[in-house]
Structures are given as C-alpha cells and as structure tokens.
Description:
- It holds the Pfam family NB-ARC.
- Residues 194-350 form the NB-ARC domain.
- This is NB-ARC domain-containing protein.
- InterPro entries: NB-ARC (IPR002182), P-loop_NTPase (IPR027417).
- It is built from 16 helices and ten strands.
- It is an alpha/beta fold.
- The strands form two sheets. It has a six-stranded mixed β-sheet with strand order 3-2-4-5-1-6, with helices on one face.
- A hairpin with an 8-residue loop joins strand 7 and strand 8.
- Helix 2 packs across helix 13 and helix 13 (357-369) runs parallel beside helix 15 (390-411).
Amino acid sequence: MEKLSNTALSDIVGRSVSFLFAKYDDKQKTATVDQDLRRLRQLLLRSGTIVEEADRRLVTNGAMLRQLKDMKDQMLRGYYVLDVVACRAALGGDGRKDGDDEASHRAFSMSIFNPAKRVRSPSGDPGFRAVAAFGAIRGVSSRELQEKVQSLEAMIGDAKEFVVFLTNCPPLYRQPYSAHLFMERCMFGRYMEKDRVMDFLLQVEPPGAPSPGVLPIVGPAHIGKSTLVEHVCNDERVRNHFSLISFYSQSSLEGEVLANLEANCLIKHQNGNAPRERQLVVIELLEDVNEETWNMMLSSESSISHGSSRIIVTSRSENIVKLGTTHALRLQCLTTEAYWYFFKMAAFGSNDPGEHPKLASLALEMASLMQGSFTFATIGAIVLRENFNTQSWHRAVTRVRDYMQKNVLVNKYHDDVQVTGQPRYSWSIVSQKPSQYFVLRDIYRSDKQNAPDIQFVDLLAGSHQPLGTYEILFWESRIPPYFKYVCKCEIRDM
C-alpha cells in the first residue's frame, strides 16, 4: 500500500507540474501572438500608405511596378490573416459566442471550401491550414503569423529606394479620396496584366517582326477582359502612341466585316500627332475565328498591315491563342485574399470592419459563396450597405447559399450572366419573409442610355413590385466600359 501510495502521489505531482508548464507555455504563446498581431497592424498601415501613394502617381518603371505588385500582394494577404484572426478572437475560440448565428459559425467551420482555410503563405504555397492553435485564436498558427510579419518587415525595409523614386513620379490625384469610393471607380487587382499589355503596345518592333503584332487575351465570362483593355486604351501613353484606336465587338468575324473592318469598328480615339500607320484595333469575340478567316481579314486591311500597328483579340475561347504573334494573356480569378479585400471594402464602405466582427465573419462566408465574381460582389455589397445590421447580413448569407444551390440544381449554374434559355430563380436576400420570387431570363448587354426602372438590386433588397413580366436592369458597371446588363424578369408570388 505504501509503494502504491507513493506511485500515485508521484503521478499526481508529475501531472500537476506538466499542467503548470503547459499553462505557462500557452500564456507565453498568447503574449507572442498579441505582439505579432500588433506588429502586423503597424506594418499594414505602413505598407498601405506606400501603396496608396503609389496608386495616386503615374508609375511607368517596370521594376517599380513589379515591386509595387509584390507589396500589394503581401498587404492583401496580411489583411486577410488579420481579419480572420480578429473575427475568431472576437467571436470566441470556435468562431462564435453563445447565441451567435449559425452562419457566423460556418464562416470558420472545418471546410475545404472555406476561404479562411485557404490563406496563402508568403511563399505562395497553400499553407495557413486550419490548425488548432491556442487561446481564442484558431486557424492561423503562431509560426505562420510570424512568417507574415517577417515577410512584410523585409519588404518594407527593402522599399526605401522605391519610396525615394516614387516621389519623382507625377501625381494623378491631387485631392484625398476614400479608398472604397476609389475602388468602385477604378480597375482592381490587374496591375501586372495592365503592365503586360502596355509593354506589348508600346514596344519597338525589330526589323522582320510579324506585321501587325497580335496579342490574344483569354478568360472566362466577366473576368474583366473588356475592362482591362478599356483601361489600357484610356492611358495617355497609349493615346499618344497611336493615331487611331478602334473597337470591333460582335459574336463573330465574318461576312461583310471582312470587306472593310474599319467601317464596322467604333472609333474610340484619334490622334493627329502620331504616325498615321500606327493604329490599334481591339477585336472582342464571343465565338471562335478560324485561321483562314483571320488571314483574309489581315490581307484585306492594308491600314493595319504595318509593323507598328497592333491588334488585341479577346475571347472566352482558347482557340484564339494560335492567332497571336506573342504569348497569350490569360486572365484568372483574383486570389482569395484580393477578392476578400475588394468585397470587404465594397460591403463596409466607410465603416471599419474591425468594429463589426460579427458582420465581418458573415461577409467572409458570403465572399466564399460568390466564386470570385465581380458582378456578385458589387450587387451584394450594395444590398448589404443599405441593410447594415447582423440580422440582414445573416439572412443574406443564407439566401445566397440557397440561391447558388437552387440554380446549380436547375441549370448547372456558372458565372455567365448572358446564358440564354436557362432561367435563374431569385428572391429578396434581406427580407425576413419574402413574399415574391423572381424568374430571370435572357440576360443581355444593352447599349441603351435609359435603363429600365426596376433594378435587380432593388428586388434583392425587398422592394415589392407588381406581378408580371418586366425588363429590369440586372447590373451596371461603374467603371469603363460601363456595360449595362438587362434581362426579362417574371415576378411571382411565393
């Protein structure tokens, strides 16, 4: 009995010592994480100041643009980590407090589809896995947080020369501007792509180069191909370089178009000071074009046969890649961190997400449901801003999830707003008990100046409309080329 008692006492003492050491270690880790979070906030403020100042200036140096792009990427990843950790810490260790909404919890649930589980590591590898950490913070380990802090510190430390050179770049914006208002009116997240197109347009062709130079731009519907090209063509360097900038936008390139392409183009800009033979033609196609038709078009258009002229072809089809005289530019969806930053700024506007952790957690889940769509992000953000409360945002997350599931089952949904013959079913995403639902058909791009009176965002916000079939404004872009999308909408009672 004495030996057994000594053994039991020794085991109890050992467990107690281990518990005390573990508790001390947890406190040390928590203190370290708090320090890293404070340091991360400071670094994000500094990097944000540099990025904002660079966005207000005309930066043309290629090396500076690449460094700026890397800094923006690191900043976006840092904000993503900070937002995920802040939401978790504010809502409790498992992502919610007692009585919180189910959607708030799902925003941090163990799911491979959860963007909070797909934060990228500084090296670009899919790190930042959902790791059980310590205290109230889970999902981002202390090592990963330290790596983010260290990478930002190193980048800001290396940016001293960049800041000095930046002061020599001419300013574009003389007045202070709100970040969310600026983002609503400017292209977001295509810095390197724009730089690549600019290099192609402004480079001097060596003797014997293909005539004219052709750049294919490929990507899925509504990824931003037209927006990218429009912003490039609005750049003063491009306008000063070419005597004529013209656009051709149709489903195909055939028939009477071949006889005189220039007569079927929309002239966007003319410059009498540039050499006449230096022209830019932008061709936007929905369908494929075969090489025979393409060669016929080039041979019939002597005005663009010079080596100093350029052609940009955009399409959803990979088949246009073979038409290029240079490597094709393929547009992809924004990274998870960049898309979250865009949606967060659009949804919160001038409000600070840090002061509304429950709304931020709901916005995180909503962003994960939108599949990287700019259309969904802008439409959803408008509705959320007009209903800035937890109940409405919770209903919005639930309804958006139902919307996606419903339309996937009905027509194998994908992000192409111009799919014809396949109806979409929608309803208010913020009303407590929607009394109507909407059947959307035949969404098309409209060139009319006057938009329909009924807007899709109003229907989503709970605006009650008479039953029947109407043309409604599905979505209107706020940045060039200012596309309007109209559709037929049948309004029915629930």
